[in-house]
Design goal:
Elements (H helix, E strand, L loop, with lengths): L4 H10 L3 E4 L6 E5 L10 H7 L4 E5 L13 H16 L5 E5 L1 H12 L4 E5 L8 H9 L14 H12 L4 H4 L5 E7 L3 H13 L4 E5 L6 H4 L1 H13 L2
Parallel strand pairs: 2-3, 2-4, 4-5, 5-6, 6-7
Antiparallel strand pairs: 1-3
Helix pairs in contact: 1-3, 2-10, 3-4, 5-6
């Protein structure tokens, strides 16, 4: 069952595109995508999770069908507005990968969440060489559209992350928190351990044999992890 009518109002109010699956009355799970992608990266996951939950997959600002530019503050504000209009005061389960994890963490620090799952979350961004390379390439090299971000969105996202330090937000998170990181995701292992050690009561889980984008490569494992985490709340 796709909930459409209510979300037409949300999209007009927030200028954020959100795909919704599942039935009202079920626990709300929000899937927040990584940089350069959109909510469509969760299509397979959303279909499976919707058997048990009401699943929201937004396009963060500047990605997919949501207008830019991307800012962390703008993404958190738009997502909080969308949740308020859809769920009222009911807390949602926030699940984010990489960029989406950063947005989810900031959102959980500002708003009550039922739970928080951070996958491949970094505390700071060390992508200066990557940003320089993207800036040097013509825009035609970057295919925008419903499932990918264009050059402008990628550049804006990286500039935002360069200025972002999540450490001051960690102590403000009161939600039950899972920090998951692939064992092969070396750039994020130390940050994942620090996040789990700093957020009160957070659990750290290392995913055997997994890299940074393991949720896209191991859909069933991701769905099992999220289902187990939400059911345990």
């Amino acid at each position: 069952m796709h909930v459409i009518a209510n979300w037409k109002r949300v999209l007009m109010a927030t200028d954020m595109h959100v795909a919704v699956s599942g039935m009202t009355g079920q626990p709300v799970v929000v899937l927040l995508h990584c940089m350069g992608r959109s909510g469509t990266m969760w299509d397979r996951h959303r279909a499976l999770l919707a058997e048990r939950f009401r699943v929201l997959a937004p396009d963060l600002p500047g990605h997919g069908k949501s207008a830019g530019p991307f800012t962390v503050t703008g993404a958190v504000t738009a997502m909080a507005d969308a949740l308020s209009r859809s769920c009222g005061d009911e807390p949602a389960h926030l699940v984010g990968l990489s960029l989406g994890a950063r947005v989810g963490l900031k959102l959980a620090a500002d708003r009550n969440a039922a739970s928080l799952a951070l996958l491949g979350c970094g505390l700071s961004f060390r992508g200066g060489a990557q940003l320089a390379a993207i800036r040097a390439l013509p825009a035609v090299f970057f295919r925008g559209g419903p499932d990918k971000a264009d050059k402008a969105a990628l550049t804006a996202s990286m500039i935002e992350l360069e200025a972002l330090d999540l450490r001051p937000s960690l102590a403000a998170v009161s939600a039950r928190t899972l920090v998951a990181c692939g064992e092969k995701d070396k750039p994020y292992l130390a940050d994942s351990r620090e996040i789990a050690a700093t957020i009160p009561g957070a659990q750290l889980r290392l995913i055997p044999g997994a890299g940074h984008l393991w949720p896209l490569q191991r859909v069933d494992d991701f769905v099992k992890l999220v289902t187990g985490w939400v059911d345990g709340a």
